[in-house]
Design brief:
Blueprint lengths: L4 E4 L5 E4 L3 E5 L5 E6 L6 E2 L2 E2 L7 E6 L2 E7 L12 E5 L2 E7 L4 E6 L2 E7 L10 E4 L5 H13 L5 H11 L5 H10 L3 H4 L7 E2 L13 E4 L3 E2 L2 E2 L7 E4 L2 H21 L1
Antiparallel strand pairs: 1-2, 2-3, 3-4, 4-7, 5-6, 7-8, 8-9, 9-10, 10-11, 11-12, 12-13, 14-15, 15-18, 16-17
Length: 255
C-alpha cells in the first residue's frame, strides 16, 4: 500500500502527505514548502493537528525554515484554535471560528475565508479570497486549507486513544474521522471499502468508504440520493487494515 496521499488544493496546488511530512507543490509541481510531523503534531489524512500551546511545527521553504506556532491549547473551544506563522516578513494568522469555518489574516488583514461544506469529507475545504494576493499568500492559503483545518483535534485524539484497546476501535475511529452516523456504520461490507485508493491517478482518488446503506429499526432507510462516499484518512486506513487482519485470525480460530 502506498502510504502517501494527495489532495488538490486552491490555485491548482497539491499537498502530498505521508507519515513524516505534508509537502506543498505549486501548479507546476515545484515544491514550495514541507511541513514536518513533530512529536506533538498529529496528522490525520490531510490535517495537521495543533501542537501544545506555544509549541511549533517546522515548515521548510526553499529560502529558509519558519515555524507554525499554536497560540492556544489543543482541547479548548474551536474558536480558540488560533495560530500564526511569520513568512518572508509577513505575519499570517489562522483564525478558527467554528468546526466548519476559519480565516487567514496577513498582517492583521483578512485575505481568505475557508469553509467546509456538506458532509462528504472527500470534498475539499472551499476558499474565498478576500484581498489581492501573491505567491506567498497562495502558499499560506493552501497550507491553511489542506493542513490546518478547523476542529477539536485535541479532544478527538483523546477519545481515539481511549478507544484503542476496545473491540469497537475501528468503528469509533471511522465514525469520528469521517462523520458517518451510527446507523450508517451498521451496514458497510468490505466490498464497499477502498483502502488503497489511486494516489497517482489524475485526479488522485483517496481511500474511501461507500456509505450506501443506513440500517434503522431493522430496515434500510437510505435512498439513492442520500448515498455518499467518505474519504478515509490515514488513521482510518490503518485501523481498518488491522481490523480486517483480526477478522481473518478470528475466522481461522473458529474453523
Amino acid at each position: 500500500m502506498d502510504d502517501s496521499s494527495r489532495e488538490v488544493g486552491a490555485f491548482g496546488w497539491r499537498v502530498v502527505t505521508d507519515d513524516k511530512h505534508a509537502t506543498v507543490h505549486d501548479e507546476t509541481g515545484a515544491v514550495q514548502a514541507r511541513i514536518e510531523r513533530t512529536k506533538t503534531t498529529t496528522f490525520t489524512g490531510f490535517q495537521a493537528g495543533w501542537v501544545e500551546q506555544g509549541a511549533t511545527t517546522p515548515m521548510h521553504l526553499p529560502d529558509g525554515t519558519v515555524s507554525i506556532v499554536n497560540g492556544m491549547k489543543a482541547a479548548m473551544r474551536r474558536s480558540k484554535h488560533n495560530g500564526h506563522a511569520v513568512v518572508r516578513g509577513r505575519r499570517y494568522e489562522f483564525v478558527h471560528e467554528s468546526g466548519r469555518r476559519s480565516g487567514l489574516l496577513r498582517d492583521g488583514r483578512r485575505i481568505a475565508d475557508l469553509r467546509r461544506t456538506g458532509f462528504r469529507t472527500i470534498k475539499p475545504v472551499a476558499v474565498t479570497v478576500r484581498s489581492e494576493i501573491d505567491r506567498t499568500d497562495q502558499l499560506m492559503i493552501v497550507v491553511a486549507q489542506q493542513c490546518i483545518r478547523a476542529g477539536r483535534d485535541g479532544a478527538i485524539s483523546a477519545v481515539l486513544d481511549a478507544a484503542a484497546t476496545t473491540r469497537m476501535h475501528a468503528y469509533i475511529v471511522v465514525s469520528l474521522l469521517t462523520g458517518a452516523r451510527t446507523e450508517e456504520m451498521r451496514a458497510p461490507t468490505w466490498d464497499r471499502v477502498d483502502l488503497k485508493g489511486a494516489p497517482h491517478a489524475d485526479p488522485p482518488r483517496p481511500s474511501s468508504i461507500d456509505v450506501w446503506h443506513s440500517v434503522r429499526d431493522g430496515r434500510d432507510t437510505k435512498t439513492t440520493k442520500s448515498r455518499r462516499t467518505l474519504r478515509l484518512v490515514a488513521r482510518c486506513v490503518e485501523v481498518l487494515t488491522e481490523h480486517a487482519a483480526q477478522q481473518e485470525i478470528d475466522r481461522a480460530i473458529c474453523r
